[in-house]
Queue: 2 jobs
Job 1
Amino acid sequence: MDILQLIVSGLANGCVYGLIALGFVLIYKATESVNFAQGDFMMLGAFITLGFTNADYMGLPFWLSCAMAIAIMGVLGYLLDLVVLRRMFGQSQVAVVILTIALGFVIRFVAGAIWGHEPQSLESPIAGVELRFGGLALGMDEIWVIIVTVLLTILLYFFFARTKLGVAMQASSQNQLAAYYMGIPVKRIHSMIWALSGIVATIAGILFASKGSIDPTAGLLGIKAFAAAVIGGFGSLPGALLGGLIVGLVEPFAARYMPAGYSQIFPYLILIIMLIVRPHGILSQIQTKKV
Amino acid sequence: MRIVFKTSYDADIRLFKHNAQAFWYLLLFAFAILLPFLVSDFLIGEATLVLIWAICGMGLMLLVGQTGQASLGHAAFMAVGAYSNVIYQLNFNMPFLLSFPLAGLTAGVAGALVALPTTRLHGIYLAIATLAISVLTEDIIIILEPITGGIAGIFAPDIEIFGYTFNRYGNPVELYWLVLAITFIVIYAYRNILRSPTGRAFAAVRDSEVSAKAMGVNVARTKMVAFAISCTITGLGGALMGHFATVFTNETFNLIISITLLLIIVVGGLGTIHGAFFGSIVFVMLPLMISLTRDAVGSLTGSGSITIPGLESGIFGAILIGFILFEPMGLYGRWLKIRTYFELFPFYRKDMFRRQKSYLKTERTR
């Protein structure tokens, strides 16, 4: 029973990592660059929801504020690409990496200035409710996290595989020039994917803030989500979820069976080993070019 | 505008392009030596800090600016340098003159070990791997508590050379001169590496791995050598930083420091030694500027001085974004543009320094 409990909480944590990793993968899939501020996007989305919902701030109904936060973050993601990242079009990946790291710093500062640096928790209807199956206590929040994550992954997977827009997004990353020839508005596609990843980050943030408390440094969770994305394979949506689940499951078990101090290094250790052994992840997207 | 008439192949790799240039740099060096007679002890402390950051920045510059490999984890190698330097002194009773180069060497070996598996990676994968190493190092320092002191930290003794002690508070001017001498040696070594075949191999790898390979450069080896040299220099800077900070813990060399190093070289100007210095001047002066502005604003509005937590890192982030968007060549690049404008006077054109843009292709197809 004990182990089952660990597995469930690990799965729920893993789903949050997976959701952040989904944001990385979305942007990587369409623009071939990585948004190092994705964790901070998540934090910002959570704080916007919190600002609308919590009684201390505006006290709006939970679902309404969720919808508003998602809309705001979507627009914010679109504008960010339009105003900032479009200037980097055609420049090296490393420059984009540094830019997004700096962006993370700014977002952290803004969130800290508006909502303070104290940890706060979101007053959501799914927090703190427990369901009991025999001896197993399941948090309502954990079940929600798992369901939403799986649904979202499936939805995005089919979006990329089946819809015209999704295929256009993939095309614009695989070969920009060819995408232009096919009449794909590459720059607008990039802005759209940033909007989409802002939305995914907000959903992750809402779920994360319902599970526990949130503060401006919560964005550093993004580093663990990197581990998830790399393990699953950058560029694969189910891979991101798989990687997130692996990291999420390893953590509680390491914390339980390893001496203190060793447990928190496990996600990074797996990440480094993965990068050495199989840098393109479990569900890799590498195709060998046929000559 | 001066046109250098080259009469031999050696002219291409001379330390100074022409004698006037050598004269100006010597003047600058003389000014740096005489600086303690001109300004207060507090500013000398800040100048020492600028030099130390510049050494660390030069380490990262060699990797990012010269070889084109991104590293988000250079604070880890600063930590290796700082800790090993102090441990050699305390646990093995080594003098500073021996422990200091050894600390650099240790950081270099650590860098080479890290480079062995990671040089196969490139672009963002390398960035992520080094990021993970930076995070791991903090935890490893705690795990190795018996020798590193863990969370409680470790106390760096005064630097002692032939019975003469250097202390940040006791004799800041002498410490400044010591750091200046080390900076000079590092710059000289850096310049010489760039002039050597190794340095040109670095540039080849940075500009195009495929063409470097075609020219007979061993890409994997070159990257590893770059990592090792870069980490050696950063480790030396870290060792000095340890002495300057006197006490340091696992949190002294955290991820923020790695990003700070990146900020220093990007703001200063990638790929130039000048850049490391300009960047570290900006980085050290910024907190001073912020507190001055804060006091000024406070006295203007009459509300007393306001403290906003996290303001510094927010402003750093904003500056970094501004530079990447509007001046990717950094402060030194801006200076070059201004100088070229006046040298060529009516003939300077807007796009002279324009970088080539390229259409992106996926890395996922090999």
Job 2
Amino acid sequence: MRVPPLTTCEKEVILEALKSGKRFDFRGLEEFRDVKLVVGSEVGTAICTIGNTKVIAAVSAQIAEPSSMRPHKGVINIDVDLSPLANVSNEHDRLGSKGMELIRLLELIIRDSRCIDVESLCIRAGKEIWKVRVDVRILDEDGSLLDCACLAAITALQHFKRPNVTLEPHHTLIYSEYEKAPVPLNIYHMPICTTIGLLDKGQMVVIDPTEKEAACLDGSIVVACNKRREVCALHQSTNLVLSTKQIERCVKLAMSRAEALTAVVSDVIKQDQRERSAFKRPDGFSVTTPSLILTSGTAAARQINAPRIQHGREPEEKMLYQPSVIVNENPLSVGSVKQEEVDEDALIDEQLSIIQNSVDGVAVSDPQSSGVSKRKKEKEMVDDLLDGICDSEEEEVKTEILGSSEPMEVVPVVEQQKDEEDVTSWRKKKKKV
Amino acid sequence: MAVYLPGDVINEPSSSDSSIIGYGINLRGEKKVVTQPGAFRSDEGKIWLSVHSKRYIPQEGDRVIAIVTSKTGDFFRLDIGTAEYAMISFTNFEGATKRNRPNLKTGDIIYATVFDTTPRTEAELTCVDDEKRARGMGQLNGGYMFKITVGMNGRIWVNAPTTEEIIKIHDVINKSEFIIDEDEIISLVQDSYTRSVSG
């Protein structure tokens, strides 16, 4: 079978997100996924999960005849199977290029880095040795497959104990675990793999890429190192030319990862040993059963009204006269009033208060009586003036001018009065309303 | 809730008056025969099976999201999640003629209807209805496509103004597969909205 091909839109979105430092699983570019490590109730078994990637490793040993070239050395065999269970494109019992790459690298990391003492696996030189077999089964694939497989294999090897043997002159005695305590393997160091994705011709690194991310990247580099800061293996998947600086950076990242994971592995092993020595029945893999199983309990069609979301972006015109509003507030906060409504309300309130103030100012004195009294006062004043000015013609002329100006003065007063009347009547109407 | 296996005959009282038969059920004469394992569902004269499957079995009239994998002669070869590839003719696009062919490349995605599922042949899709109108079907530009095991061919296409929003929507939909409670979904959406994407 085949996997659906990567679509153009997926690739574009993933690359765009990565270039702006975002990832679909909310990680940073230099952030690893969580590692879950469980050892089984049987010795020499371990399951490792990194994100959705899941690998089980099992170690077994049998007595075999050594090769004539290395008569006093044990043998470590590694077997990998990529089952269709992990990825529909895998074929059963056929590794393909991906599987071959994986098995070669695991051999390189576990056997060729000499992390296991093979000389202690020799029982009788040239006759009998222990043949240790590491079975690695990929259960689920989602990127960083080698990291996960390597971690599972190393944990299983740490967890493994071979039966105790004694040598007699003509035969070898193999004891069951009830007669003599089984012996763990001699492991010098733990090589830990780290996959680092490369983007932009190696300018950017994407740590621990998922399957989809890996498909969009330019390539990846795998660094295997131990907590003593020794590089055990270095592998690059594509022919991308990297500078020494870039590789050094990758190695540095891998070293810190190796230190952290070595601590995890030894913690898990120690915890298991403590439980076993206290005769507690080990939980084994029962704890790995996923809690998220099919939940189609009452999955009928249903409409969900999500709370209204207000966008932060607003047209520039509005921003001009309302610069500081809901910037830092949670846009989902319930009961938030629309900004436009607030503006309108405020404006109307302001206008109302202005109108009311002006209306009140006028209404302090009775408009009609004041108008009449004002006219009376003015008439009196004019009369006084007229009385004071008597004979001379020049002055008469003046009085004439004054007299002519008199009605001019009265007219605006009347108009004003009308205005006041208008205002009061409007106000009365409003009160009725 | 009743669970049916392929080959079972449905004898539910609610299924007798239903006129619309949905996913996972086939009509053979008068009998309603189950073709996919799943839980029985019925709603207002419709019956179907709720199937948890990663492999899609085409049914006529289904709207699906298809990925273009290659071009052969007058046809595009498409991946719709079935065992075999599906086909779509050049002329089954709105406004397409023999000269004016749709410009699709490998890796593009289209939204189409299944209209022919004759056994032993590839399923055939179309991007136009009987009146030669697209009605929303055709090529999907931009956005992001992902897979989830629900309904039809289990593919969802999402588009949003920013990548960050696409990531958030993707996250919410993926998580909601395992949520039944309505309030939980709302709180999930709120959490996701306030959460920062970049680590």
